[in-house]
Amino acid sequence: MQTVSDIQALREQISQWRQQGLKIGFVPTMGNLHAGHISLIAEAKKRADKVVASIFVNPMQFGVNEDIDSYPRTLADDQQKLMAEGTDLLFTPTPDIIYPKGLDKQTFVEVPQVSEGYCGESRPGHFRGVATIVCKLFNLVQPDLACFGLKDYQQVQVIQTMVEDLSMPVEIVPVETIREASGLALSSRNGYLTEQELEIAPVLNQNIRWLAEQIQTSTDFIGLAKRAADAINAQGLKTDYIHICHAKTLQPASEDDHELVILAAAHCGKARLIDNMQVFK
Ligand SMILES: Nc1ncnc2c1ncn2[C@@H]1O[C@H](COP(=O)(O)OP(=O)(O)OP(=O)(O)O)[C@@H](O)[C@H]1O
Ligand SMILES: CC(C)(CO)[C@@H](O)C(=O)[O-]
Ligand code: BAL
């Protein structure tokens, strides 16, 4: 596996592969790789001839009081894992390479509606940062397809909408969430949890599953979501939000909707956990 940090080396390799008519799959990440990331690489490998991964802790998607400085950076370990899974190329740019003029003068991509609310409301500017970096990475890597984890459900909708609205020639492949046996979704930020917090963190997923069962037979979405939030908070987490939404528009679900998603975020110690579950009625 080749690792490149500069844009010219990346473009040279990509253009060689494109001239050979090879199909390119892409997996963008922020590093500190776990089995969730590796499942994205495996999915890309099944669908493409060459797999490109990127590791970039994107300053544009972090809020002022967020964890950009402490975000785990484990490049050597990550390279081992990517190589073992058969990744062909790893792109590891620095912020200077990606944003040479600085963030203030950078053109950005804003996706309306699906990026508003939920994580978009709690993390102002977050999805602008995500859409902008993913757009830029797509322009650099020119993939035929790109894999994204459904753990970040709202992010998948934001990227899918961006690709449709801007006619980007990239197929977005959503990949199922990989979980601990406890139900806790794997996440780099789980590394912030103490042993005790790791014991209570699965309560988020347990209550999402409870809610998924309840809404099969009830349309009291607001009342049920409140009961789930109370149960989560009673165990020592602090819910940021828990909502039942239309699976595509992410608008609050109405009684006639059949494709739903439960979206939730909760603070657990230093970590802000997110999780979700799609429900078909
Ligand atoms: N448990 C998981 N299962 C499947 N995909 C995942 C999982 N966790 C993250 N991903 C996906 O991996 C890609 C890169 O995510 P990222 O590097 O932010 O990892 P992360 O573990 O989600 O980190 P964070 O703790 O910052 O949310 C995204 O598409 C994300 O949805
Ligand atoms: C898609 C992404 C790599 C963009 O920085 C990031 O938001 C993530 O890791 O999910
Ligand atoms: N997995 C989403 C990246 C972020 O939380 O910034």
TrEMBL record:
Q: Give the EC number(s) under which this enzyme is classified.
A: 6.3.2.1
Q: What GO molecular function annotations does the UniProt record carry, in alphabetical order?
A: ATP binding; pantoate-beta-alanine ligase activity
Residues annotated as binding ATP are: 30-37, 149-152, 178, 186-189
Keyword set includes Nucleotide-binding: yes
Where on this chain does beta-alanine bind? Answer: Q61
What keywords sit in the KW lines?
ATP-binding, Cytoplasm, Ligase, Nucleotide-binding, Pantothenate biosynthesis
Catalytic activity entry: (R)-pantoate + beta-alanine + ATP = (R)-pantothenate + AMP + diphosphate + H(+)
Q: Where in the cell is it found?
A: Cytoplasm
Its domain of life reads Bacteria
Any one GO BP annotation for this protein: pantothenate biosynthetic process
Q: Report the active site residues.
A: H37
- Please tell me where (R)-pantoate binds in this chain: Q61, Q155
Q: Chief location of this protein?
A: cytoplasm
The reply on keyword Nucleotide-binding is: yes
Which family does the similarity line name?
A: Belongs to the pantothenate synthetase family.
For this protein, the record's NCBIfam families field holds: cyt_tran_rel (TIGR00125), panC (TIGR00018)
Q: How does it assemble?
A: Homodimer.
Instruction: Please explain the role this protein plays, according to its UniProt record.
Output: Catalyzes the condensation of pantoate with beta-alanine in an ATP-dependent reaction via a pantoyl-adenylate intermediate.
Q: Identify the HAMAP family for this entry.
A: PanC
Its protein name is: Pantothenate synthetase
